[in-house]
Specification:
homodimer, alpha/beta, 6-stranded parallel sheet, 4-stranded parallel sheet, 12 helices, 44% helix, DNA-binding
DNA sequence: AGCGTTGCAGCAAGCGCTTTCTATATACGA
DNA sequence: TCGTATATAGAAAGCGCTTGCTGCAACGCT
């Protein structure tokens, strides 16, 4: 059998209550007693029973982080930053908390089930990262779940995700629309008038907002849109490659390609090169996020930098109650345009 | 107050025991009764209390995945694959399990503390990924912890990590030494005789094994080593950039640079370009791992492909007891040499 | 008809911990 | 010197769930 609190108590010649208090340090215990208890703990190699503790105390030290794709550095970087603030071993936080990353793979069901699982574990906090799925039914279900979690005392923070009003969740939203607009305006400023756009998956807030920003920029400059110029795909390199070939097929006269994110942009670059086009002389390319590898692309990628680590860290602190929530429970985090080698004046100008 | 089993029982006019059995489905319950119970569960919006359940049943549905750096796709890809097999919502597995990713940041203390936290939660299984830290004391502590976990019934699987004999852990080890050797032999075969090597952090098994493979290749071809040709750094791009400049400073006549992994190789490429050197005409570059972005580098990266997703998936299945452990509890996973554009014949030949 | 089966449901005893309340001992003030 | 405040430890009642065992019908067999 495993060692229990009672065993430690017996060995230290004290009551179980005292051992518990020594371990939790939330009640005065005489120094000599504490020492005796700690010695017994050490000798017996005692490890607290988490479930029992959580049951009795009606709280748990679990913190959940939901991500859409853990293999994507976009989420990895945020998760890493969140986790570093959550504490866990070695973090800045006091109490040791188990920060757990849950990979939804972008599936609505998984998202919901993970939330239930965390609710079941009576998680101390939950951080939802990345864009939300735009399906009315799913969204309602999510909101209901989030509200329930909040009511049960779980702090819910949205990081890089649109606010969920009336749910009690704190939102740190990325200004995808503004960033998208700024990016496209940069290209328009260079003289581009025929811009292809590789959007992310449909029914995602991130996809929609970035695209809306792009369109707003076009509209602001009186550029009429051609529906052939927009293609949807996944948020990965492969998708960018294929979408670019498709764009080129539809309209070979495009002078710029704006991608939904950096991975897609990289795929776009590869497709352009394979098609014998130079970047940026023949076609300019722009990404989004400014992930670490973007600066290493050849040419380096013009993109919008999102402060993923900073936002994640802040979300983590808020989740831990170590930082005040922004006024109204909502904060918008702006991106920063990074002009680099992949964008230049169009060939025809 | 939150809804409890008893509330559901009252509403369904059955005993708590029956509700529990309906929920767990491990005991015969009449269809009509089950239906009544499920209806009550639904109406009351009941969510099982995880800790209470874990305490009573003395088991938990938590599975831990330890990674060194969650922001690094190397780990992200493995974690994703492991998690997909662990089940969790939507996975192939039957029971719903909470697969949690814990980020150690490469710190020995965190590694140990996370293991304790998982032990505390009575985790069903634990998967340790990536290289281990080569410190006798730490290793002994880890082995002891792992042994204790095994004894307590937690299945422990090492994925991409050297075996830990006598601990009861199953190991899926990457053949870093063989891969490193093959890679360097490829360069030697092209005619290179002056090869720089950017190693990972010291005191890491992965670092050592890859370096050993490199040296074995040199030795096999009678190439004498120059201690100036090896530089240690972190496993990231920045480190590769700086290390390359350092190598160039030490010996400008190098015709090839072998990096500890792909990120480092990318940094090396950037440094070479910034130094006015062409790849591979002036200097060849090689990486390791074959992460998704490697093929997009310009020129595309010669590297050793590690089947991260496959190995992760297998580790996940073994952790769930859905696949037999390899004979002896140890399997070696080989890498595959991917010859691409970044390696060519040396300039002097 | 009598009796062993079989199928389902309930009782109640924990699982290992936390925490309130109570008890004791010591210290302090008047 | 006695009463009261203060510090520390213990007793015991759960926290919400699982599960071995018991109970009781309805059933099938000889």
């Amino acid at each position: 059998m495993t060692v229990t609190l009672a065993d430690v108590a017996a060995r230290a010649q004290v009551s179980p209550a005292t051992v518990s208090r020594v371990l939790n340090g939330n009640y005065p215990v005489a120094a000599s007693t504490r020492e005796r208890v700690l010695k017994a703990v050490d000798e017996l190699d005692y490890v607290l029973n988490g479930p029992a503790s959580a049951l009795a105390a009606a709280t748990s030290d679990l913190v959940g982080i939901l991500v859409n794709d853990i293999a994507d550095p976009f989420f990895g970087i945020m998760a890493s930053a969140i986790q570093s603030e959550i504490g866990g071993p070695g973090g800045r936080a006091g109490g040791e908390r188990l920060a757990v990353v849950c990979n939804t793979g972008g599936s609505p069901e998984r998202e919901l089930t993970y939330l239930t699982l965390l609710q079941r574990q009576r998680a101390a906090a939950v951080v939802l990262t990345g864009g939300a799925i735009e399906d009315a039914e799913h969204q309602a279900a999510m909101d209901a779940k989030v509200r329930k979690l909040s009511e049960a005392g779980t702090r819910v923070v949205l990081c890089g995700r649109p606010p969920a009003p009336e749910t009690g969740a704190i939102a740190l939203t990325f200004d995808n629309r503004g960033g998208g607009q700024e990016l496209t305006e940069h290209l328009i400023g260079l003289g581009h008038r025929r811009l292809g756009y590789i959007a992310g998956p449909e029914e995602r807030t991130t996809t929609r907002h970035r695209l809306e920003g792009h369109r707003a920029a076009l509209a602001a400059h009186g550029i009429e849109e051609d529906s052939r110029w927009t293609v949807h795909g996944r948020y990965d390199r492969r998708s960018g490659y294929e979408a670019t070939l498709e764009l080129l097929r539809r309209d070979p006269s495009l002078t710029a390609v704006v991608a939904a994110n950096d991975s897609v942009a990289l795929g776009a670059c590869a497709a352009l090169r394979d098609s014998g086009l130079r970047i940026p002389e023949d076609v300019s390319v722009a990404g989004f996020d400014d992930l670490p590898f973007s600066i290493d692309a050849v040419p380096s990628l013009t993109t919008v930098r999102l402060p993923l680590a900073e936002a994640g860290a802040r979300a983590g602190r808020i989740a831990m109650g170590r930082e005040e929530a922004p006024p109204g429970g909502i904060a918008s985090v702006r991106g920063e345009l990074m002009v680099r080698g992949s964008s230049g004046v169009p060939r025809s100008s």
